[in-house]
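for the writeup, i need someone to sanity check this before i put it in the appendix. the sequnce is what the collaborator sent (i think, or maybe the updated version? ugh). structure was predicted straight from it, no edits. if anything looks off just tell me and ill rerun, i have time this weekend
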Amino acid sequence: MGVMEKIKEIEAEMARTQKNKATNYHLGTLKAKLARLRSELLIEQGGGGGSSSGEGFDVARLGDARVALIGFPSVGKSTLLSTLTSTESLAANYEFTTLTCVPGTMHYKGSRVQVLDLPGIIEGA
């Protein structure tokens, strides 16, 4: 079941639920689920990672877990990110190709994991 189907299902349940003190909690949880699904839909339409919401090192938290790829330059962090996720991270034959944090999202056993490609770390660079 896709995100749009889930949104329509929750909206239909909210429409057929009577509004009174006994159903306030249930309607509140439905509204929270609806807000979460709509934000996921906006993020998916935005292209996943590397969008304007995730430039530089200030990256919006997304998914159930977060993994950062940290290491020396030219060891394959960008290639690994591109392989694991649908995000395109530029990889070239020279050091320091990645200058900012590049986020991507992968799915693992039913959970969403955010993977961050960080620039190469060298002391004094």
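Strands lie at 65-69, 102-108, 111-117. The chain is about 35% helix and 15% strand.
thx in advance!!
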